[in-house]
Every structure is written in C-alpha cells, then in structure tokens.
Amino acid sequence: MLASREHLRKRTGRFGTPRFDYLQQLVTEFQSTTIQADRAQILANLGNFAYDPINYEAFRKLNIVELFVDMLTDEPEDLKELAIAGLCNCCIDPKNAQIIVEAEGIAAVVDCLTNENESEEVALSSMSVLQWLLNPSTHKEIVTEQVKAALAKYTVHVNPRIKNVALLLAEKIG
Q1: What is the pTM of this model?
Q2: Where are the alpha helices (DSSP H) in 64-173?
Q3: What are 108-121's pLDDT values in tens digits?
Q4: Are 23 and 43 spatial neighbours (Cβ–Cβ below 8 Å)?
C-alpha cells in the first residue's frame, strides 16, 4: 500500500515513525557490515521501501538510489538482483530516474540486461528500468545493438513475464 502522510500520521500517532532515521540506520548498517547475508537483507529492506513515493525524498538525501546503482557492478548475484529490483521500484519517479542517469546507471543496467550470466529476475528488472528511463535524452545510450540483441533473445523467451516485458520495451524502442 502506498502511504500518504495522513495515513502514516493516523497509524503512528502524533510523534510518527522516524522513517528517515530508520532508512539512515539501514544505510549505515549496509555500509558497515561485511556479512553477505546481512547486506542482502538490508538491501532487500531498502528495496521494499523503494516502492513508496513517500520515501523518495529520504532516498535522495541518503543517496540510496546511487547505492542501488553501485550494487549493479562487481557484486554477487543476490545483491545485484536486489539492487536492480530497488531501482525498478523507484525509477518511475522523474527525480530518481535523473539520479540513475547521472550516476551512470544506464550503462550498469544495460550491462545487467546484456550479460548472459545474469538471472532471469535481473533481466526482467533491467528491462523494466530501461522502459522507464527511455526518453529522447537517453535514447542513444539505451537503444544500442547490444540491447536490441538481448531483446531479440528475450522476446521469444519461454517465461511469459520476460517475453511480455521484452516485447513492450522492443515496441517502445521501435
């Protein structure tokens, strides 16, 4: 459920939930822990907060969108999958989309899509993110032969979720 400020006030009382503080604590824990399972759990928690626009201001102040982008390169598969899912959840917001672009996130997302060793979930989320990021200013960076080749492969995929998302992005690319 997307939370409105009024809804949160009613649920949490007049002192509210220190959401910013909680997100800041998660980021600090993520940066300080070296235990892979803990990092994955924290990244999953951040990704769950990424779906709700009420959190976007805190995400931007805490550089969580950039954190997701950073996790797309040279990270274990589970962290990469959680990071791209987090981006997928928050990239619909124009300010977050711009942060992704400025953080060189398009190249990282394209790498996720075109890397044959990535999981189906990473490919699916990558196509979804690119769908939201595609506009006249990003067209040249997204619409490459590499992306077209990956989409050609995914448009005939046996998994209908992957096939349908690939068909949508291929249609949008033209």
Answers
A1: 0.90
A2: 64-70, 77-90, 94-102, 105-114, 120-133, 139-142, 145-154, 160-173
A3: 999 999 998 889 99
A4: no
